Amino acid sequence: MEIDEAVRGCSDRRMRTKYANAVYVVQRAFALYPFEEVAFSFNGGKDSTVLLHLIRAGYYLYKKDSGDVAEMDAVKNCPLRTIYFESPCAFPEINSFTYETVSTYGLPLETIHSDFKSGLEGLLKEKPTKAIFIGTRIGDPNAVGQEQFSPSSPGWPPFMRVNPILDWSYRDVWSFLLTCKVKYCSLYDQGYTSIGSIHDTVPNALLSDSSTEKIFRPAYMLTDGRLERAGRTKKTNHNIEMNSVASNGMTSIEGEQTISRAASIIVVSDEMLFGTTEDKLGAALCKKLHAIGWRVSHVAVVRNEIDSVSEEVERCKSMDDMVFILGGLGPLHSDVSLAGVAKAFGVRLAPDEEFEDYLSQLMGNNYTGDRNEMALLPEGITELLNHKRLPLPLIKCRNVITLAATNVDELDTEWDCLLDTQESGLVQAKPFVSKHLGTTLTDVQIAPVLAKLCLEFSDVYIGCHRISRAGPLVVNLTGKDNQRVEAAAEKLTSTFEGQFSQVDSCK
């Protein structure tokens, strides 16, 4: 069988492993379910094209292993019931490729014109169907929580979803298609990397030829598979989009003044709770956030326990725009931050092949077991933030960013890279300005004046701290309007003539 020979004869060890695991799932499905009660969902895309040829190879090997030599020539194309949900919004190229492929391999096609759920309900009523092969991969929106064999979701018609390529990456898909030299939809040679409907799919801008905006390189030339869906975007009027951005004011001074961003910081460290070490990173991160106009609403130190991390993330992720986690990242038993994040979002940890590539380049094969456990990331919600100055990408899960820094210098580097990475979501707002005034007056003497000042200058934060119980009191005035901060400071100092002097913020 040409597919099996092509893969087993290639030099890509990972491709051979992925192929072997996938065809095992296919063979297992044919062993579990009658052939006539198994179907294949085909949509003309790259993933289902890969799945088609894996099913052909798996079925051939299944028959070969069963000793049914007489049927070998008849089963090479695996005439499996094939379901195609045809949509008026589909690209013409997808439709033509689908029907051409069905004809080439002699697949009995069942075309459905309704939505996926209604179509399946009708199909299962008409023909008994116990299992359906689906080309779902980790990273797809509907992949969360699925295994190679996953029963259909509650409320759906009952059948077994069979996902042979669930753990395949974008690179694996193209490695297989190019190795086997099978035909795929022509749109992928025009810069499309993930194809939806004609209304929400454009060529991936990352494949644009620098000399002209109308020429795109083939999909297999996309170097970062995590950006596969970068072309899945609404086709909007450029002028409307630009006006929308302008009205939001993200690039104007007026807009900056209206931006209000808040962040939480979670430090994962038993050692800090034991008093063995001190939290320097949390304090440094507060200053960095403050410098770009973000307010830090919450800083917490939690134990190196999955539940402790999960509970804190759960509390903070819906309360603030961004949550930063420090500590608990790595291969040790106490490195539980990512597991805690996964639990907080209700997803599992799943292997991320792209991240495993980075780890392999950095540390080689210096880990135990069949898989690098550090490459297990929260499934379906993880985005890797790459930067040329970082040995490994930073990990972002929705609005939670896990930092790998172990000291302030490393934090400086990671922070600069975050600011330089648009995907981080760190919108720079108008920075805060502060004024710090010291006095030897007692708390009782200045308390009534500060209370009135808070009412008069409600847009200015007014707080106090003492260097020591017997030492001077420092009044801190912070806001985004320098004139208001200066006015509040002038009102305070004029009330107590000669009793206040400006001090350094650290004193």
From TrEMBL:
<dbReference type="Pfam" id="PF01507">
    <property type="entry name" value="PAPS_reduct"/>
</dbReference>
<keyword id="KW-0285">Flavoprotein</keyword>
<dbReference type="InterPro" id="IPR001453">
    <property type="entry name" value="MoaB/Mog_dom"/>
</dbReference>
<dbReference type="InterPro" id="IPR014729">
    <property type="entry name" value="Rossmann-like_a/b/a_fold"/>
</dbReference>
<feature type="domain" description="MoaB/Mog">
    <location>
        <begin position="264"/>
        <end position="411"/>
    </location>
</feature>
<dbReference type="InterPro" id="IPR002500">
    <property type="entry name" value="PAPS_reduct_dom"/>
</dbReference>
<keyword id="KW-0288">FMN</keyword>
<keyword id="KW-0547">Nucleotide-binding</keyword>
<protein>
    <recommendedName>
        <fullName>FAD synthase</fullName>
        <ecNumber>2.7.7.2</ecNumber>
    </recommendedName>
</protein>
<keyword id="KW-0548">Nucleotidyltransferase</keyword>
<keyword id="KW-0067">ATP-binding</keyword>
<dbReference type="Pfam" id="PF00994">
    <property type="entry name" value="MoCF_biosynth"/>
</dbReference>
<keyword id="KW-0808">Transferase</keyword>
<dbReference type="InterPro" id="IPR036425">
    <property type="entry name" value="MoaB/Mog-like_dom_sf"/>
</dbReference>
<keyword id="KW-0274">FAD</keyword>
<comment type="pathway">
    <text>Cofactor biosynthesis; FAD biosynthesis; FAD from FMN: step 1/1.</text>
</comment>
<dbReference type="GO" id="GO:0005524">
    <property type="term" value="F:ATP binding"/>
</dbReference>
<dbReference type="GO" id="GO:0003919">
    <property type="term" value="F:FMN adenylyltransferase activity"/>
</dbReference>
